[in-house]
Amino acid sequence: MKRRQCKLWAWAVLLSSAILSPTVLAAPDADTAFEALLEKHWNAQLAQNPTFATSLGARQYDHLLSDPSLEAYDREVAQAKDFTQALATIDATQLSAAHQVNYALLKLNLETSIEASEHGGKYMIITNRGGPHMNLTQLPARLPFFTKADYQSYVTRLGAMPEYLQRATERVRAGLDAGWVQPCVTMKGYEKSISAHLPEHLEDSVFLDPFDSQPSIMSDSEFKQLREQAAQTIENAVLPAMQRYATFYSEEYAPKCRNEVGTDSMPGGKAYYAHRVKRFTTTDRSADEVHQIGLAEVARIKAEMMDVIREAEFEGSFDEWLVYLRDNPDFYPKTAEERMQVAAAISKKMDGELPKLFGKLPRMPYGLKEIPLDIAEKTTTAYYSRPAGDGSRAGFYYVNTTLLETRPLYQLEALTLHEAVPGHHLQIALAQELDLPEFRRYGGQTVFVEGWALYAERLGLETGFYQTPYTNFGRLSYEMWRACRLVVDTGLHSKGWSRQQAIDYMAANSGLSMNNITSEVDRYISWPGQALAYKTGELKIRELRARAEQALGNQFDIRAFHDKLLENGAIPLSLLETIMTEWIAAQQDAVKS
To answer: Which interval of the chain is the signal sequence (predicted)?
Structure first.
């Protein structure tokens, strides 16, 4: 498997060299065949993900939910193998330059999916901050509710929820039998995320939220009838199914949770983690190599932190500084409203700075929302939700407003730049507007998405943010957080680290609150490998920018650099490096001429 993946990366780089090459000619027959395959593959993706299809405006699946069963997963893997075989019948060298890249990226996606199926991760659809029930409880906030048909489809989907939960339960149960289950320590309190959706009064159910307001195009009688149908379905079908799921979790899943935290404690866990490292870094680095990079970054950032502490004229050690920051109430918001207002002000300020950094900006706006209370205490400090592909919903920056004593305001600038603009919203919304195949506009590599967002935090240095030692330390603490991830994630899953060892390491270095640290460590335990993407991607982007600045000198144009970096969507690092290397060379040639 390793040899096959290495060849794929090398081949992706080879094909990417056609991007700027005028010698590659389009072959209409090959392009036509490949475009037909792209369309067939995309339609299959929509059929497998009906609610995602709805968000893109593909409304033919509006009455359906996805099938979370293991049988459906196996069918999807078989389909990926069929598409891989179909790809092999097309001579990539006969494709146009753009389609050669699309070909390589599609092949990568398919092979990654096939390789993932060889590991027990396919059973792990419950994590410490996610699960099948949450896929359902989030639908009222994510589906469109503008027409009578929208509400009719929703009622039909409500009726499908019991079967969805039953099939998901059977898949998780198969994982229990195979020895694949989350650690006990990371799942404490998880049952609250289920019980929160078993209200004493039906009117309090989140599933009735879409009926809080009536579209003007619907008559009172139509709306009332659909609301009554929804209420009956929720009461007689959805809530009993949710209760059965809660019983399954408490009586079957929780008692079988594992004591060890590393993936290597499960059957085939070492090979699974090696796969995750490659998937989330898009490199051939070993876990140990990633670990060493993390240690070096932690040391570098620690030195910068000490410089900031001296700038603040604080007389004490690094540990004493952290205690000072963690224990001083002046650094923390007093109310949820204060935290949201500060985040909104930061967003507004950065909005005005974007034209200095980018020539092309996304058309789709974004907004701010509080993270729902039923998941807030177990989830991260913020997250981003992409806009609907059909333009029916903006992007949203979700802010955690619980446990305010653990969420310092001096970190809010870095957090906001990461989640909103110029971070996730700018990159993801822009990608959705690119003239690329759908699988690239709405998908892509985590290492690029998260690497870009971490890089975006640093852009605040160029746009008037981080003006005090405290906010600058907040930025560095966030960068240190991502550097620590390289050390901690690999430590937990490949070096036998305990949960406490990971917590102690982050507490000694990161500057995060203890609540954030424990929440983050539990995330790395529950979601192995994903946390490696951030620093890995950011380091590559910074490396490419440094190379461009050195090569172009005062001819370096930051707006052109960013536009080029973002114009291909979320691509693997090897392909990104090839594209940017050729761009730098082209810019040098233009200067010479």
So the answer is: 1-26
Q: How do beta strands 395-399 and 382-385 pair?
A: antiparallel
Residue listed under structure tokens 């930051």: 558
Burial letters 37-49, b for 16+ CB under 10 A, else e: bbeebbeebbebb
The two tokens of residue 559 are 């707006």
What are the CA-CA distances from residue 443 to residues 361, 486, 572 (Å)? 19, 24, 12
User: Which tokens is 25 given?
Assistant: 């000619």
Task: Please check the confidence at residue 18 and state whether its pLDDT lies above 70.
Answer: no
Distance (Å, rounded) from C-alpha 81 to C-alpha 116? 12
Q: Token digits for 48? A: 């497998």
Write the pLDDT tens digit of every residue in 361-420. 999 999 999 998 878 877 789 999 999 988 889 999 999 999 999 999 999 999 999 999
Cα 345 to Cα 397: distance, rounded to the nearest angstrom: 13
| Residues contacting 86, CB < 8 A, separation 6+ | 37
pLDDT the model gives residue 4:
37
Give the count of beta carbons closer than 10 Å to the beta carbon of residue 4: 10
How confident is the model at residue 84, as a pLDDT? 97
Cβ atoms of residues 132 and 165 within 8 Å: yes
Structure confidence at residue 27 as a pLDDT band (50, 70, 90): low
Rounded Cα gap, residues 367 and 396, in angstroms: 5
CB of 47 within 8 A of CB of 138?
no
If 0-12 CB within 10 Å is exposed, 13-18 middle and 19+ buried, where does residue 204 land?
A: exposed
**Cα 473 from Cα 479, distance rounded (Å):** 10
| Cα(188)–Cα(525) distance, integer angstroms | 13
Judged by DSSP in three states, 283 sits in coil
> Can you give the residue ranges of every domain in the chain?
1-118, 282-519
Would you list the DSSP string of 319-384? HHHHHHHHH-GGGS-SSHHHHHHHHHHHHHHHHHHGGGT-S---SS-EEEEEPPHHHHTTS-SEEE
Q: How far apart are CA 205 and CA 110, in angstroms?
A: 39
Q: Are 397 and 366 in contact (CB under 8 A)?
A: yes
For residue range 241-255, what is the model confidence (pLDDT) as tens digits?
A: 999 999 999 999 999
| CA triple 3-92-561, angle to 5 deg | 85
Give me the half-sphere count of Cα atoms (radius 13 Å) on the Cβ side of residue 110: 23
Nearest CA-CA partner of 171 in 48, 71, 240: 71
Is the pLDDT at 14 greater than 80? The verdict is no
Q: Which two tokens stand for residue 370?
A: 């509080």
Q: Report which residue type is found at 381.
A: T
Contact 486, 535 (CB under 8 A): yes
Tokens of 185: 């320590």
Q: Is residue 15 over pLDDT 70? A: no
Helix (H) or strand (E) holding 385: strand 382-385
Tell me: the pLDDT tens digits for 138-170? 999 999 999 999 999 999 999 999 999 999 999
> How far is residue 147's CA from residue 154's CA, in Å, rounded to a whole number?
11
Q: Is the pLDDT of residue 56 over 60?
A: yes
- Cα dist. 253→133, 183, 219, 246 in Å? 14, 11, 46, 10
